[in-house]
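User: Here's a structure from my thesis project, written as structure tokens. My advisor, Dr. K., wants to see whether a designed sequence matches the one we expressed. Can you design one independently, without my sequence as a hint?
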């Protein structure tokens, strides 16, 4: 999901436009796998050496539900996963909430990439 999300997001002008002032790194943890995503003024990449400001930690089953073309109730959004106690947010929550719209848009691109592949 992550690799396709990055590829899809980098070719999307909406992501580039909305992310042009964003400079953050955040981590997605699937329980057995942790990936650090770097947003550098609209350019998305994976950066294992970057220190993430926050981490979205959920089990593989929660991320698999989130990535479905039509996710089940409670898995359609990271805040729904959080409310259902299926996701934990660690680190600087203020950075996440300052960039929440962009992070959610980016993760939705990952879902769309999953559907298309």
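Assistant: Designed independently from the structure alone:
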């Amino acid at each position: 999901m992550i690799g396709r999300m990055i590829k899809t997001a980098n070719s999307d002008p909406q992501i580039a436009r909305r992310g042009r002032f964003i400079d953050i790194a955040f981590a997605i943890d699937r329980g057995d796998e942790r990936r650090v995503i770097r947003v550098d003024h609209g350019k998305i990449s994976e950066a294992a050496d970057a220190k993430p400001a926050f981490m979205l930690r959920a089990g593989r089953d929660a991320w698999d539900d989130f990535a479905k073309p039509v996710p089940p109730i409670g898995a359609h959004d990271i805040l729904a996963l959080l409310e259902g106690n299926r996701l934990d947010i660690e680190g600087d929550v203020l950075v996440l909430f300052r960039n929440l719209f962009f992070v959610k848009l980016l993760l939705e691109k990952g879902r769309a990439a999953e559907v298309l592949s």
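When you compare it with your expressed construct, this may help: The domain at 2-116 is CATH 3.30.1050.10 (Nonspecific Lipid-transfer Protein; Chain A).
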